[in-house]
Design brief:
244 residues; alpha/beta; Ubiquitin-like (UB roll); two-stranded parallel ribbon; 9 helices; 7 strands; globular
Length: 244
């Protein structure tokens, strides 16, 4: 089953036209809404099924792949070859040559920015997309098979007393609860994260069902970095289980 956003109906029409009558393939349109492309969201939209908390689609007998992975399988497997390069989107407020670039896996981010004429010392670089991407600790991080994009932003110069990273107390507005596509309670988990009750977040509040879409952090009027808290909690829990 191929899921395509409903604002790309022409793509769905083109794929349907290429299918043979006996192909066991169907094309379905899904609502154009972030984070519709996440595998758990697609399974809910297309099949009406849910993945168990902390589980993967394979646990219920389903495999979800993106179109890039399938294209590479068709190209590389018949030749017995492995993945050595991938297409990466480079864009941002200060990128003169924004676009999609074919890059060898292992290429340092610093080299990429230099080739595009970007002065890396004055930029903030995010690996991934605007919602789920993570700020790079070093520009010497390499491109991997999972890298989809690089966002490059010029560092702001703040006026005295100005700060866009200030975190304020939760006002219990419930915007994060309304925004969560997995129907979790980000506000409660954020409070527990502040107390470092990471195990309780997993056992009682389904922390592992969170796929870190960033919607909760995006809508929070108190600027609380909820999704970053959840990433830390998951990492600590994994470390504790590894020691057990």
């Amino acid at each position: 089953m191929v899921g395509i956003e409903d604002n790309k109906a022409d793509a769905a029409t083109a794929i349907k036209a290429a299918l043979k009558p006996d192909d066991p393939i169907t094309v379905e349109l899904v609502e154009t809404k972030y984070p519709q492309g996440a595998e758990k969201m697609l399974l809910k939209s297309l099949l009406g099924v849910e993945v168990p908390a902390g589980g993967l689609p394979i646990d219920i007998g389903i495999v979800v792949n993106n179109v890039g992975t399938l294209a590479q399988l068709g190209k590389l497997l018949p030749k017995g070859e492995g993945l050595i390069e991938r297409v990466v989107t480079v864009t941002g407020t200060n990128v003169a040559k924004a676009g999609n670039y074919l890059m060898p896996i292992g290429t340092p981010v610093r080299f990429i920015l230099e080739q595009l004429g970007i002065t890396a010392d004055h930029e903030k670089v995010i690996l991934g997309g605007p919602m789920m991407g993570m700020s790079l600790p070093s520009l010497d991080v390499p491109i991997t098979k999972g890298t989809s994009g690089l966002l490059v932003f010029q560092e702001r110069t703040f006026l005295e007393g100005e700060n866009d990273t200030a975190v304020f107390p939760c006002i219990k507005c419930s915007r994060c609860v309304d925004a969560c596509p997995m129907h979790l309670n980000p506000a409660q988990m954020g409070w527990l994260a502040g107390k470092r009750h990471y195990a309780e977040m997993e056992s009682d509040f389904h922390l592992n069902s969170c796929f870190e879409c960033g919607c909760c952090s995006f809508v929070c009027p108190s600027n609380i970095p909820l999704v970053q808290y959840f990433r830390i909690a998951k990492a600590v829990n994994r470390e504790q289980k590894g020691k057990a």
